[in-house]
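Notes to self after the Tuesday call (sharing in case useful).
The group wants a holo model before anyone commits to mutagenesis around the pocket. I volunteered. Ligand is magnesium ion. Logging inputs and output together so the record is complete.
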Amino acid sequence: MCPQLGLSGAIASSAIVGHASNGISSRRGKFPCAQGRALRSRVVTFAAPKGVLCDLDGVIYASGTSVAIPGAADTVRYFRERLAVPWLFVTNTSTKSREGLAARLRDMGVPCRAEDIVSPAKLAADWLRAHKAEPAALFVGPDLAPEFEGIQQLPPDAQSGAAAVVIGDMGLDWNYASLNRAFRLVMDGELRCEEAEAQRCGKCASAATATAAASVASTASASASSTTAVGATATATAGAAAGSSSLPPAVRRGRGRRGASAPPLTLISLGKGRYYKDTDGYSIDVGPFTAALEYATDQKALVLGKPDPLIFKLSAHSLGLQPEEVVMIGDDVRGDVGGAQAAGLRGLLVRTGKFREHDLHVGVTPHAVLPSIAELPEWWHQQQREQEQGQQGQQVLVDSMMPMTLLPPAAAVGVGVGVVLPAGRGRQQGKGNAAALTTAGA
Ligand SMILES: [Mg+2]
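Result:
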């Protein structure tokens, strides 16, 4: 942040460049800084939210228990039954099916049906069916079996032949043998990919040879020496293509490397959380296992869970709303808040579950930090009142072109993620450096 010019000055000097039909307006500004370079900012003004996405573990119930957080059940009932606000639960939990989770919530007094829950397992099962990626090798807990009903699965001991490898939370069932089996399955897919690529290129080379030969044959006046030259070129091309054991990095790495043909294997991760809070302490989540496989195989996983923005966008779509019309509430500043903000939603952090004060300094600035979900109604109605008074919150988005050296370290990490404050208040929510970028709006 430029120390010589407050953001209020930047806002005052910026021009309104557009109003979206959904009540969101944005301004772009350009203002000098101490080093004489231009900083570019974009101020997005949100209307009051219309829908809610809500994490489960650490927000609705205490992590690893069946005890609801005080006020959670009343809050959910208030929003869903009294206000009729569109609401979905979005969880990375991959140890229980959605039906099992819904039953658990109902036991706590939280109204919920299986279809009210968006989970990575559900998305993965839909993806496998849609792409006919069978047989699939599932590295998930036994309680997730109902989600994958009807999908052909690889025998538990098979070390090759999978069309997809699905990585979830297996708790203590993760060990060297299980992780190494997943690795071998992915590598088997890699080898099949290379073979398929070599065969495809071999066919191309054969076709090229045939074309060249036909061309030569049709040219009756061609000299013997020129025929030899054409044949030699085709042979050299075929050799280079068929000998593709050294495929270029762009072909070997990442999704889509196999072109339009169906990939022999897809590595799917049910979220990419780093850790979660269990009854006996913090525990490794699925993310580190996925990262290990990505590192070992040079494959990039398809992440169908938090913090990938995809699950938030799909969930907002399921509510019938645009991302900016939806607020996500969670206890994971990166997985819930950062992921939601990256998808265009507002992200609220609660001080329950896995929350630590350290979370306010990791480069992600929540739109608000609430003591618990029990305070969500008050925050919600505050947003409604401010919209009625024409004082919508604002989010300051600093363009990535902004020289990173001008930002404090934490704010630099959070570039592109601002903070929403009600106009006219100048209140800071959270202690992240990005909060210092925000002040009362116009
Ligand atoms: Mg959580």
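Two things stood out.
Residues 176-218 form the longest helix (43 residues).
The two ends are 19 Å apart (CA to CA).
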